[in-house]
Amino acid sequence: MISFKDKSKKTAKKTTSPKIDVPFYSHLDASDPIWQDRARSVACLAMLIEYYRPHGIKSLDGLILEGVAIDAFTSAGWSHPRLVVLAHNYGIRGYMEEFRSKNEQYHEAFFDKGVEKIADHLDHGHPVMASTYRNWTDEQHFNLVVLTGYLKDDSGILGFYYNDPDAKSAEEGKNKFVDFKTFKSQWRRLVIFMGW
Fold first, then answer.
1. Spatial distance between the Cα atoms of 110 and 87, rounded to a whole number of angstroms
2. pLDDT score, position 196
3. How far apart are CA 168 and CA 186, in angstroms?
């Protein structure tokens, strides 16, 4: 029996935004074992500083010390607004933005606007730091990742490419992919935009 494809059904064409080549840092690049488990957020910042200002930092250890000196590390972890100030110290403009509301009427609209704005920044060559749950599942621990691109088809964005400072190496952590459904449930709707 011969089967034919239904010509009336169109196959959605998948397209990928160009993945931004952001240098990779792991939290394990911190030499002090005490800081290694606390260095994920500042490792993301190191990636963006090195993207915008190649050779801008001497080491992750040095960036950690700079952050501590301006009270960027708190009892709750790395302060996102203070990470922005630390980026400003390298001449990189940035700001933090939240895309959430306790009012369910607006919650989804803020999410949609956030995804749209992230995609726009990526389209213009600007990676984005996004606050997520660690490994996209662990709601007990927060993590920052650097979004570097996205995959989409005619229906919309299918997922994002990202650098994960939780990985041990660039081979493990650079340009990983998270599908949109997982991103939607595990993104904390907080981002840090830089470079504008």
1. 26
2. 57
3. 21
Residue 7's pLDDT band, with cuts at 50, 70 and 90, is very low
Report which residue type is found at 66.
E
- Cα angle 179-177-102, degrees, rounded to a multiple of 5: 50
Per-residue pLDDT of 21-75, as tens digits, reads 999 999 999 999 999 989 999 999 999 999 999 988 989 999 999 999 999 999 8
CB 182 within 8 A of CB 84: no
Summarize pLDDT for 138-163 with one digit per residue, the tens. 677 788 999 999 999 988 999 999 99
Quote the pTM value: 0.89
DSSP letter string over the chain?
------TTSPPPPPEEPPPP------GGGSSSHHHHTT-HHHHHHHHHHHHHSTT--S-HHHHHHHHHHTT-EETTEE-HHHHHHHHHTTT--EEEEE---SSHHHHHHHHHHHHHHHHHHHHTT--EEEEEEETTTEEEEEEEEEEEEEEEETTEEEEEEEE-TTSSSHHHHTTEEEEHHHHHHHEEEEEEEE--
